[in-house]
Automatic annotation (TrEMBL):
<dbReference type="InterPro" id="IPR000933">
    <property type="entry name" value="Glyco_hydro_29"/>
</dbReference>
<comment type="function">
    <text>Alpha-L-fucosidase is responsible for hydrolyzing the alpha-1,6-linked fucose joined to the reducing-end N-acetylglucosamine of the carbohydrate moieties of glycoproteins.</text>
</comment>
<keyword id="KW-0458">Lysosome</keyword>
<feature type="domain" description="Glycoside hydrolase family 29 N-terminal">
    <location>
        <begin position="11"/>
        <end position="351"/>
    </location>
</feature>
<dbReference type="GO" id="GO:0016139">
    <property type="term" value="P:glycoside catabolic process"/>
</dbReference>
<dbReference type="Pfam" id="PF16757">
    <property type="entry name" value="Fucosidase_C"/>
</dbReference>
<dbReference type="InterPro" id="IPR017853">
    <property type="entry name" value="GH"/>
</dbReference>
<protein>
    <recommendedName>
        <fullName>Alpha-L-fucosidase</fullName>
        <ecNumber>3.2.1.51</ecNumber>
    </recommendedName>
</protein>
<keyword id="KW-0732">Signal</keyword>
<dbReference type="GO" id="GO:0006629">
    <property type="term" value="P:lipid metabolic process"/>
</dbReference>
<dbReference type="Pfam" id="PF01120">
    <property type="entry name" value="Alpha_L_fucos"/>
</dbReference>
<comment type="similarity">
    <text>Belongs to the glycosyl hydrolase 29 family.</text>
</comment>
<dbReference type="InterPro" id="IPR016286">
    <property type="entry name" value="FUC_metazoa-typ"/>
</dbReference>
<dbReference type="GO" id="GO:0004560">
    <property type="term" value="F:alpha-L-fucosidase activity"/>
</dbReference>
<dbReference type="GO" id="GO:0005764">
    <property type="term" value="C:lysosome"/>
</dbReference>
<keyword id="KW-0443">Lipid metabolism</keyword>
<feature type="signal peptide">
    <location>
        <begin position="1"/>
        <end position="16"/>
    </location>
</feature>
């Protein structure tokens, strides 16, 4: 009897012990994704750095100018800056003088974002916090003389918005990275002196909910020491139980390894993936960073944003929408307008988005403009085009005698009738869409369908 009790105690202790992950993909990929990420569905991406100073071309300005030596970038510099200006000379002009983290956090909350991802360091190497590994090339030593990462994090957490940190593994022109590259990535001077110390610093200092890794594509994960870092992150870091990571940790990792998959920028799978994923998109279709010369025709409108969101969530993904602030820290009014329009839409239709799951059908069989999500026994049909006769045909749901149909944002139930073969036809409110609370994208709540 005593032996049985002792055995039971030993088993109970073993069962209660947390799992230890080993630094290999088989073990790391077995870690369950923290539930907050799938529930969140909607995030805002922020690309901000020294590239916001020239604010021309894209956030890859330095590479296009000095790496590829594109002549139009040289002409731009000659026309806008004194002779002999270097990229490093632009950093003091990155002032963030008008950066108000509380106002940003309020805007992102009103946009319906459940998480925000800030660029802590892009491929230019400039860090938006006082990185000890980036002496004199960071936002505390020059430019703003402020801890941008810390200030935004504090403001977001007051509003219970999850905080993600974008971090580029590589840097275009860092001497140690170029040395490792010339050595065929057989040496790891850059990783040991720069990349890994900065990642540890970010985690220990800011305790992020998400690490959005990038800049991995030139070298294998063994060069980056990715699996060792992730094993520490999952086992021993202060965020080991809550942190989420993406899939950009080395050549051939994208869409294969990591907590969730980005696969590629603006990725659209077209079918329901078997693994949690995220679609990152940018309001400015031509750039992730701010461009002073952007034209309205180059920006996503409200309908495009809502369409991408609905399709992404129907396929089980999260939607991360990007904006680029100015060098002073201003979010352009046109970006604010787009974010607030998204927030207004979510204030009515969020029930069909947040915490939802893919349904057995993602897109209606007979329509390219009707998409489905679900929550347990409830099905949501989100239609992006208002039918001319106010009658919406849904071919996928199977109605029953107890079926009830309502439109989110309206209180009265809608009339419906079963179709002869399958599906149902719903009589929409007898009003023109322009008189409804929203101008694009409407959600029907279906109860009692299979």
């Amino acid at each position: 009897m005593e032996a049985c009790v002792m055995l039971l105690l030993v088993f109970s202790v073993a069962a209660a012990s947390p799992q230890r992950y080993t630094p290999d993909w088989e073990s790391l990929d077995s870690r369950p994704l923290p539930g907050w990420f799938d529930a969140a569905k909607v995030g805002v991406f922020v690309h901000w750095g020294v590239f916001s100073v020239p604010a021309w071309g894209s956030e890859w300005f330095w590479w296009h100018w000095r790496g590829e030596q594109q002549p139009e970038y040289e002409r731009f510099m000659q026309a806008r800056f004194p002779p002999g200006t270097t990229y490093a000379d632009l950093a003091p002009r990155f002032t963030a003088r008008d950066f108000q983290p509380e106002a940003w956090a309020q805007l992102f909350q009103e946009a319906g974002a459940r998480y925000v991802v800030l660029t802590t360091k892009h491929h230019e190497g400039f860090t938006n916090w006082g990185s000890p590994m980036s002496w004199n090339w960071n936002s505390v030593d020059t430019g703003p003389h402020r801890d941008l990462v810390g200030e935004l994090g504090d403001a977001l957490r007051k509003r219970n918005i999850h905080y993600g940190l974008y971090h580029s593994l590589y840097e275009w022109f860092h001497p140690l990275y170029l040395l490792d590259k010339n050595n065929g990535f057989k040496s790891q001077f850059f990783v040991s002196e720069k990349t890994m110390p900065e990642l540890f610093d970010l985690v220990l200092r800011y305790k992020p909910d998400l690490i959005w890794s990038d800049g991995e594509w030139e070298a294998p994960d063994t060069y980056w020491n990715s699996t060792n870092f992730l094993a520490w992150l999952y086992n021993d870091s202060p965020v080991k139980d809550t942190v989420v990571v993406n899939d950009r940790w080395g050549i051939n990792c994208s869409c294969h390894h990591g907590g969730y998959y980005n696969c590629q920028d603006k990725y659209k799978p077209g079918t329901l993936p078997s693994h949690k994923w995220e679609m990152c998109s940018s309001i400015d279709r031509r750039s992730w960073g701010y461009r002073s010369d952007m034209q309205i025709s180059e920006l996503m409108d409200e309908t495009s944003i809502i369409t991408e969101l609905v399709q992404t969530v129907s396929y089980g993904g999260n939607y991360l929408l990007n904006i680029g602030p100015t060098k002073e820290g201003v979010i352009a009014p046109v970006f604010q307008e787009r974010l607030l329009a998204l927030g207004k839409w979510l204030s009515i239709n969020g029930e069909a988005i947040y915490e939802s799951k893919p349904w057995r059908v993602q897109k209606d069989n007979d329509s390219d403009s009707t998409w489905y999500t679900s929550k347990e026994a409830v099905v949501y049909a989100i239609f992006l085009t208002w039918p001319e006769n106010n009658m919406l045909t849904l071919s996928s749901p199977v109605p029953s005698a107890s079926t009830q149909v309502t439109m989110l944002g309206l209180s009265d139930p809608l009339k419906w009738q079963a179709l002869p073969d399958k599906g149902l036809e719903v009589a929409l409110p007898l009003t023109i869409p322009s008189l409804l609370p929203l101008q694009c994208g409407w959600s029907l709540k279906l109860v009692g369908v299979s």
